[in-house]
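Structure ticket #2291
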Amino acid sequence: MAKPRVKICCISSLAEAEMAIRYGASALGLVSAMPSGPGVIAEDLIAEIAVRVPPPVATFLLTSKQDVNSIIEQQRRLRANTIQIVDRLEQGSYDDLRSALPGISLVQVIHVTGEESVDEALSVAAHVDAILLDSGNQKLAVKELGGTGRTHDWTLSRKIREAVTVPIFLAGGLKPENVVDAIQAVEPFGLDLCSGVRTDGKLDEAKLVRFFECVAGA
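Resolution: structure written out below.
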């Protein structure tokens, strides 16, 4: 099993981006407007960070928009090289996004709540570049679309990982204390975390170092 890539989400400044990259992040998550959850920053700041991140580090624009035209307009403003769709598309298709945004990678979030999540992952896998498995809840009055700090049923994540051919990122409550178990349980292509390497909302260098050490040792 190859060592999983690591995406550090909820990046709030250029300094945080530089720290995450320095310790080994392969991707950074830049959070635009959300109905709930941590890490949201202004679009101007997202654009500023995205343009400064060196290749080959990926910049993920987290968007809660559900119509293709709004997503296209947002990406063209902010210039991230990957779109992370945290809710279900309701208007337009993945093919529409690909036609309008050639070269931009598409990652669909599946919030793992039960067996129905396996079917949802199978239905979108052929249309995206990767799937990210998280612990949100789209059925709440105020949707949870990420950043919950909760783990989910990793046996379902493993089932999804084995059923699809696209890369799987595992998110939801990951931290130094449980990341080895998560890697062994799911064997994901990548790991995605926010609160697990933060203290009082700020990226914590000591926690970041420990997390990468645990990943390397897994």
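Closing remark: The first strand starts at residue 5 and ends at 8.
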